[in-house]
Amino acid sequence: MEDSPPAGAEEWESHYAYTLGLQAYIYGFPWMYLAQLRWLWTSEAGRKVAEAQHRSMPWAPLNNFFNVDHLATPEDQTGGSPNHDTLYSVAWLDLAAEPMVISAPAITDRFWCMQMCCIDSDNFTYIGSKATGNAAANYLVGGPGWHGAVPADVLDVLPRARTPAVLIFGRTGVNDDADGGADLQKARALQLQYRITPLSVWAGQPRHPSRPPHAQVPAGIDYENALGSWITMNRAMTENPPGAAPGIDQAELLRLFATIGIGPGQRLEDRSPATRAGLQRAAKHGLRLLRQMAKGRGKSINSWHYPPPIIGRAGQASDFVTRAAMQALAGISAHDPEQAVYVNTAKDSDGNALASDGAYVMAFDPAAGGFPPYQKEFHGFWSVTMYGADYNLVKGTDNYFVNGYYPRFQTLGPDGNMTVLIQREQPPDPLPDGTYWLQTPDPADPTTASWYLILRVYAPGPEVSFIQSWAPPAIRRVS
Asked: What is the SS3 assignment for 255?
């Protein structure tokens, strides 16, 4: 069998590669996964593959923004649990040759941020309403160890990236998704003012590289391809070595993984058949492990899971399984808690899996904790959104979210309460004041037989971001 170790003298070697390979896979998964996404999202060949597979995803050449001009819907099958609250602006930077200048306009009437992470999925900085304020500004984004002259009209206030490859997830809040598109147009106009400029171009002395920036080609785009996963991981780590300053030193760990051919400069093809067999098993079982823990690890209240406090930079706290599963696999990257917190659940208040044929009630009651605390001065708000097991918005319905900022969700009950009915069948119309409906997926569709909810709090108060004392409402099954 493919998953069985070889017999005889090579058995120890295969077992050693398997046991250590599990840890190496967990450690290196972000390099492999994000390298695949970078190629799909920035190269012409990647775009053709995505089109052939009918995959809708952001696409722009390296060092350019792709602005998503609509709020995410079930038609956007990109994975990563997209929100329906903000417009995304996505960019991959290549900082190997020189820094980039990120320009943003003044934004005073909505939440916005640009989350910047390295190819290991750990954040290294933000700009935005909470991180840097609302004024128009230009920010230098430099790679590991870069030193040089910075123009007077560029702010050199951000820490250096730890890898030359950087992913930016920009989010521009939409204050109303049902006002005829007026506020959506305002958000789009702000998106068009985001700019990425090479530092040499900004300074009026453009470089002329012999080879334009390009994304490394992965050994396949399916992370279930065991051998291709390891090859892609090694190539990505060679280009973007782990442990570069200002990150934590990881030299000892990398030396250990090198004994089985994993890490910067390593070549899997130079390893013995027994080692490769062990690594193939490790990749398959490692992926299974990450999928099992992707939806919850951390403090649990009412069957909702707060993320660990180190989410967003878990690798810098040496929590590599959180980095791989909750940051990379489940979300590509994750917010720092002071920017936004995503609380999730796949179970009801009795601890049973949420079922498509069940009916549930979730109540935000002021007498029992009320709505999530957030910071109004930073245009904070909250939302609840439903996803299928493929990390996409559930198909077959328009009722997959409630947004506490949108005007159509502002009507509350007599005690300032809100009740959310979660069920397949449409409830009687009209609904009582303060009652809203989330429609569960079709139980006959195996792709959405399991589902989960994410409760997002943008610019959260400390009861959500750090103390984690606010209790999300229990989801009670009523039939």
From this structure: helix
Amino acid at 336: D
Q: Does domain 44-202 have CATH number 3.40.50.2300?
A: no
- The stretch 127-148 carries a mean pLDDT of 96
Q: Is the confidence at residue 1, as pLDDT, over 60?
A: no
CA angle centred on 359, ends 356 and 363, rounded to 5°: 120
CB-CB contact of 477 with 422 (8 Å): no
What's the pLDDT at 392? 86
3-class secondary-structure state, position 477: strand
Fold of the 295-477 domain: Jelly Rolls (2.60.120)
DSSP-derived pairing of the beta strands 418-423 and 435-439:
parallel
Q: For position 9, what pLDDT does the model report?
A: 57
Average pLDDT score over residue span 354-371 = 93
CA dist 328 and 27 (Å) reads 11
Ranges assigned E (strand) in 132-227: 137-141, 165-173, 195-198
Q: Could you tell me if 460 and 373 are in contact, meaning their C-beta atoms sit under 8 angstroms apart?
A: yes
- Tell me if residue 307 falls in helix, strand or coil: coil
**For the chain, what are the domain ranges?**
8-43+215-292, 44-202, 295-477
